[in-house]
Fold this sequence. Notes:
The complex is a heterodimer of chains A (270) and B (714). Helix content of chain A is 43%, strand content 16%. By secondary structure, chain A is α/β, with parallel strands linked by helices. Chain B is α/β, with parallel strands linked by helices. In chain B, the strands form five sheets. Chain B has an eight-stranded mixed beta sheet with strand order 9-10-16-15-14-17-18-19, sandwiched between helices. A three-stranded mixed beta sheet of chain B has the order 2-4-3, covered by helices on one side. Chain B has a three-stranded antiparallel beta sheet with strand order 6-7-8, with helices on one face. In chain B, helix 16 (296-332) crosses helix 17 and helix 21 runs parallel beside helix 26. The model of chain B is unreliable at 334-339, 351-357 and 410-422 (pLDDT under 50). The A-B interface holds A 72, 74-76, 81-82, 84, 87, 89, 181-183, 202, 208-210, 212-213, 216-218, 241, 257-258, 260-262, 264-270 and B 127-132, 134-137, 140, 178, 182, 229-232, 235, 350, 358, 493-497, 502, 505-506, 509, 519.
Amino acid sequence: MQSKALKPEEYFIKDEPYYQTVGDEIAIFEAAYRQSLPILLKGPTGCGKTRFMEHMAWRLKRPLITVSCHDDLTASDLVGRFLISGGETVWVDGPLARSVRHGAICYLDEIVEARKDTTVVIHPLADDRRVLPMEKVGEILEATPEFCLAISYNPGYQSVMKDLKQSTRQRFVALEFDYPDAALEAEIIIKETGIDTATANLLVKFAHMTRDLKGSGLDEGASTRLLVHAAKLIHEGISPVVACKTAISQAITDDADMMVAMHELSSSLF
Amino acid sequence: MPRPTLTFEEIIERLDVYFDAEFTFIKSEDAAELIIKQPRSIQDFILNLCKRISATNEELAFQFTMNSIRALEAMDQHMVEAWAMTATDNYDRKGLTPAMIVIRDLDNYVHTAHVNACGAVLDEEISILLPFVQGLSGRKLKIAEAEDNHAYTDTETIFLPAITALLEESKDNFLIYKATVAFHWAQIQFGTFRLPFDEVLDCDDPVTQLKKITALETIRLEACIKRELPGLYRDMQILKQKTTDNNEQTHSDNWQNVVDKLSAIDACVNDTLHCLELISDKQLPDSCCYQGVLKLDQVTDIMQKRIEKEKAYFRIALSELAKESLKKNKETTEDTDDNETTTFNIKTRNDKQQISNSLVELELEGELVAIPDHVKELMTSIIVDFGEIPPEHLHAAGPGEYDLKKYEDEMLNPDDVWQGTYHEEGAELYNEWNFKRQHYHKNWCVLRELEIEPKYDDFVEDTLDKHKGLLKSLRHTFEILRGEDKLLKRQVYGDDIDIDALVEAYADVKSGMEMTDRLFTKMHKEERNVAVMFMVDMSGSTKGWINDAERESLILLCEVIQILGDRFAIYGFSGVTRTRCELYKIKAFDEEYNDEIKGRISNIQPKDYTRMGVFIRHMTRIFNGVDASTKLLITISDGKPDDYDTYRGEYGVEDTRQALYEAHRDGIHPYCITIDEEARDYLPHMYGAANYSVIDDVTQLPLKVSDIYRKLTT
């Protein structure tokens, strides 16, 4: 069996990605999209930001081009660069330019991880100009109404060095995400993995325990994503305590004492 | 060939020195008679330990020697050494008598030694138990050691015995701890203390009555734990079987009814009260290993204080919330009555479940109010106490109704501490190394961080003016050091095309060769990741020009470190004896170098003595919270470690050396700059051969310090 290779702008999400609505985020996103406003997703890791973007791409029937930002990401990685082909230099669009050209949704994940100079290139796209200047080719790319820019960041763990600049953040409509409440979170786990309600409830309870430990030894509690991982393992027949240990405790912390404490918590529950 | 055993005279000679027999009049002969019968290796072992203990106290050393043979019969050498060190630790903390008790009560120690081998020790497990209990929902509880051997809680702290050794395996003993913690958490969480104890115990036999309550509550709480923490409940059942003798208690039907009633999902303390009349005194089951005791006298006071305090805080928080929502509403509606007291409503979202914080919402005039985190925490705690938020809590506080100062924990002003009697509150305690004893004095030094008031005088300007030329050249040298953008050529990835590489590659292709993939240029920023801490000697001996030179050096250093952008902190240290180690914060890592800092540097004054180990340990602790690839601890000093008590000579040097070793272990590079010309004798021993500089001419200090810093960090 061979996997299909598609250009990102040609890849449309066909099946509805499962997303559990928490508030009115879908309505707000759609409104912002219609009004050509860029969107900023805030929230802790693993609470469903990326899934929400997939869901919205499916809803709006636009291709979704995701760029995971890292500290080596340069402006030309986003906009594009010249490459050599057949003895000549050829311009190749970067993901941002592609999105603009094809009216896709461009999602810059963990934007603060990118270098400061990189974040500035999205500024003309993120205000009412909605253009992407491409200095190297001497062109200005105008965005179509279908194009949408979304960025995400996690206000929880970023250092002072990596804060989002005011000039960047004040261009966006912000949607705040958090872990859903207990009942909803259990429902998500059940839908995603098919485990029984009792185990799902216990997993959520365990997650709350770890989230209570945030600040007293943990940087971050267990995310919904980790719960889904653990639930998947449990569904495969791994014992819940082991699943919590491998999928949750070990993933969250390296601190030996904390790991034991979390193990004690999970073994108290299951 | 084995060494010959020591003769009587040889032993006497040594013991006389250890016991200081000339002054203490301890009779070395008695001890010598015991030792003479031993083989040489044992003789050496005892004499060595005797020497180490005598560094603490001669009488203690004598008693040890007298008991040593018996101890060696009961324990191995390793344990005997531990026994001796327990005694010296006790001497440090409590004095001679308790230390003597440890030595004389050898049998007890031997017994506890066995307990220690298989038991769980609270000190070791607390790092696991604490996050464990904080992970359980509800109020953030603390864990502490109980003075007697009974576990109990005062509703804020769970007190546990220092050692648990009920079962053979340490794993099981840890489980007892865990179950005890969970059980006491359940007492607080599920409302045992909501019982009207005053009323209930107002009877002929309050002791039995309390026993009955404990038994009934245990049933109810175990059922709660079974629902909340089923895994732990299973373990608790196993523990019960292991710790109680297997005599099945026969219970009447009546008892079974009680159990059923209390195990119901909606059982509460009222059911316990109700059942109290149903059971007789003789039916009570044995208490189990994790249930501890109820210490009501400890609870009442703490609860009372907390309830009052939390009510005040909560109502004030409500008044702030009300103000905020008022502000919002004012934009839409004009007329609002300020004098009216605002009352909030509580809305619970799900009545079926146990009332818990996430399901409680605050409502003001029919609108939901977002609850800030600290208020949420308060609500959790109030709900734990009352089972709900009582209606009288829900009136927002009027202006001036509460004086919050009353509830604030009395914050001790470190400067005031010494005006009263000596106490250790609000200070940090550090161990100190005793090289003679080859062991740490536990929690020996009392350290306080004090502030230096900035003094705004002309010192800084004068210094900058005086060293104008030097500063200029220093600036120049440091600017060269600064990490700058470098254009890296021929990279696999990069921002731009490297035309030279491209042309070459193109030529390669034309001539049929393979083309390289290194065709890009990349800007690379070399970042310095250095954090440096300066520890400045503020001892009395620096008075005069040394102090001036120190301050001048600091000013120049700060100027040039700014250029490099390295993170730096400056602390001054001084003190008198181990009970008064004072650290003066001049600049912390997160503070910016500004006029206030300059003022503080200007106000660095000579104080008392130089005790170094404790400060190095404190610096290490501060440093451990700083993330940097290079950590540098630079001490600027004028002489050997030296304090008013025994902290001088070899003792001080060895403790400092040990502290530096600890710092090194944590990835910190210590370095010492001194003006003591004799320093070459002891500094290599403390800091290592290459980690110090001796400056012969004090006036050279400002230049040298910056120069040394430059060399160290490049």
